[in-house]
Amino acid sequence: MKEKGKWMPSKTYFWIGDRKGKAGFLFWKTLMRELCPDVIVESKKNNSELVKAVKALQDRNNQYIIVLDHAFDNLQVYREQKLLKTYADGKDNVFLLSIICFEYLLLEFDKLVDWIYAPDDEFLIKRAWAVKAREMLLPMIRSGELNYTSIREIVTNDNYKKEYNIEQLSARLLYDLTRNTGFEISKGKIGDCWIRSCCEWQERQEDDICGLENNRMSISEKMRAVYQGTSLSKEFSNAGLEVVL
Predict the structure, then answer these.
(1) Which parts of 82-172 are beta strand (E)?
(2) Alpha-carbon gap, residue 9 to 213, rounded angstroms
(3) Are 193 and 181 in contact (CB under 8 A)?
(4) 162: confidence class by pLDDT, cuts 50, 70, 90
(5) Torsion of Cα atoms, 193 then 196 then 199 then 202, to 10°
């Protein structure tokens, strides 16, 4: 649709490679429902199918926002990214978001540690190594100077010996920071505290106290905080997505 020389989309679709029911899909579905309620979130099951869908796209009337993991040191993902860019080029209604993975997005969230742990939480001591690893890793990725030597220097814990790329490392570090809390995230699970208002964690025990205990937030407030405290604000702005704040 055109209006005075400007392209006006009828609908906006948000395509992701995360399978329905998985942690990534539930996160994006929740985020978009709260911030961009008119945007239609669709799963393409996996990265390969997502690339195929963009290649086959003929629709020029609607807008498409594409989220494909941008794990720069994963050869398979790198190849898929190159193909995706090739297919997206020349389509003025297709926009690619540059996000390593949804786990990294939450790992970079500026209030992550403050939300997960209460000020006197014993996990702050037990997981100090994971908190420190995060503090060292994020600036390296943002600066673009990450290398495998620096990764080995950051995470010397035995848990990381088999983590070879940034997507795997981000997912494992995020899990180690959030496990056994309402914010726990693994490939197959996302904690209630990421997708519900405080405090609707169905498995909560009396001693499960997080950093939001005295400042409970609605799910809309949580998603706005995630948007503002990560690279999402920049990526959405580049794609022309209007966010309800």
Answers:
(1) 94-97
(2) 42
(3) yes
(4) low
(5) -80
Nearest to 121 by CA among 71, 77, 180, 43: 180
What DSSP letter does each residue of 165-222 carry, written as one string? SHHHHHHHHHHHHHTTSTT-EETTEE-HHHHS-TT--TT--TT---TTTTS---HHHH
The residues, any chain, with a CB within 8 Å of residue 156's CB and separated by 6 or more, are: none
Q: What are the distances in angstroms from CA 121 to CA 116, 118, 128, 209?
A: 9, 5, 11, 8
Q: Sign of the CA dihedral 233, 234, 235, 238?
A: positive
Element (H, E) at 65: strand 63-67
Name the more confident of 240 and 112.
Answer: 112
Q: Which token pair is 68?
A: 């494909």
Q: What is the mean pLDDT of residues 163-177?
A: 85
Q: What are phi and psi of 9, to 5 degrees?
A: -70, 145
**Bond into 199 cis (ω within 30):** yes
